[in-house]
Design the sequence.
């Protein structure tokens, strides 16, 4: 398997000094972070952040173009819908990219309603595109016979927290309200996501659950059956320095300059509380998680990822009393964060297709449960 960390297809060079040269966290670093200022310090210029983000977005485009060349080629969206945001205070639009399974074109004749997997791409809430996870989409279409909806949520620094999460909840709400027109069964929904998108796959269900309590008009009956989350960030109250030092291969983690960009872009303004449950789901109460998280949780973490420990801890918590969700957790050995987005044009990342297939087997079972 690839031993070079990637960020959605961008190769990140290994630390030339080896793991022993990774700076150790100070006592100050070990203290729980309370606000964005604790994580970021003095906030950088938002203009500088936009320039830096655009540079990384261009690199990501090159890396993902190489990623898509490997056979079998991933599918392309069949159509898109651009919808207005209704939940966020930052008004604007988001676009949903629909990948459709075999038989969807005949839907009007059969009146069949398909399950749907709503996906959120990675990239630190700052880079990335809705097509990034198309290799996973292929397995959803073929194995689950489900519509795959990839959400083009709005990115930071232009749209910092909580816009991405609120866009995720808006995407779910749109499919619930328009399932009939889209031939999607709102009783058979699931979320999925990778890295930052793995966070949204979790937090969007919490955000939607809380938002529905405020609505006066009824919403059609629906059931989000499952979450499939891949190497998500779950706890912003713990410093990156602590996470990096605790990793079994700190030399394989994402470099500080990149994680600093992601955090400065997304965690804004300075007084933002890092314990918000739709930012750090680890900090949500048991009652909130039990109420808002679907019954099936499919959780993948990577052994060489600085996010491995917090992901594993949340997976264990969701599976035990009093939350008691049906949790399938796998730690993938010997791989860094986002290993499955390898920019190798000759073949898919080693082991990625096997794990995608396993995940879709779990999703299919969740859709079939009565």
Sequence:
């Amino acid at each position: 398997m690839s031993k070079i960390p990637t960020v959605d297809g961008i190769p990140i060079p290994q630390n030339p000094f080896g793991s022993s040269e990774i700076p150790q966290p100070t006592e100050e670093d070990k203290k729980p972070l309370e606000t964005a200022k604790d994580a970021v310090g003095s906030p950088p210029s938002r203009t500088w952040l936009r320039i830096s983000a655009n540079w990384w977005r261009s690199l990501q485009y090159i890396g993902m173009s190489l990623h898509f060349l490997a056979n079998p080629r991933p599918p392309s969206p069949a159509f898109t819908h651009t919808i207005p945001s209704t939940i966020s205070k930052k008004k604007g639009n988001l676009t949903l990219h629909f990948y459709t399974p075999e038989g969807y074109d005949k839907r009007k004749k059969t009146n069949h309603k398909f399950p749907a997997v709503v996906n959120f791409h990675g990239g630190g809430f700052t880079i990335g595109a809705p097509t990034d996870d198309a290799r996973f989409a292929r397995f959803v279409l073929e194995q689950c016979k489900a519509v795959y909806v990839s959400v083009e949520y709005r990115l930071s620094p232009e749209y910092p927290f909580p816009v991405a999460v609120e866009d995720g909840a808006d995407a779910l709400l749109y499919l619930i309200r328009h399932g009939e027109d889209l031939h999607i069964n709102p009783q058979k929904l699931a979320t999925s996501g990778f890295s930052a998108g793995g966070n949204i796959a979790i937090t969007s269900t919490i955000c939607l659950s809380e938002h529905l309590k405020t609505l006066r008009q009824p919403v059609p009956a629906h059931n989000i059956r499952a979450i499939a989350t891949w190497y998500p960030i779950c706890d912003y109250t713990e410093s990156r320095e602590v996470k990096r030092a605790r990793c079994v291969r700190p030399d394989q983690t994402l470099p500080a300059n990149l994680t600093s960009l992601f955090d400065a872009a997304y965690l804004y303004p300075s007084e933002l509380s890092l314990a918000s449950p739709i930012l750090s789901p680890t900090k949500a109460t048991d009652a909130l998680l039990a109420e808002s998280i679907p019954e099936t949780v499919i959780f993948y973490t990577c052994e060489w990822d600085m996010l491995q420990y917090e992901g594993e801890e949340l997976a264990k918590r969701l599976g035990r009393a009093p939350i008691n969700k049906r949790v399938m957790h796998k730690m993938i050995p010997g791989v860094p964060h986002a290993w499955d987005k390898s920019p190798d044009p000759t073949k898919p990342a080693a082991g990625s297709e096997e794990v995608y297939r396993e995940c879709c087997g779990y999703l299919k079972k969740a859709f079939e449960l009565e």
Summary: The longest helix spans residues 46-67. The chain has one domain: 6-11+27-215+223-368. Confidence is low (pLDDT under 50) at residues 15-20. Residues 6-11+27-215+223-368 form a domain with the Rossmann fold fold (CATH 3.40.50.1820).
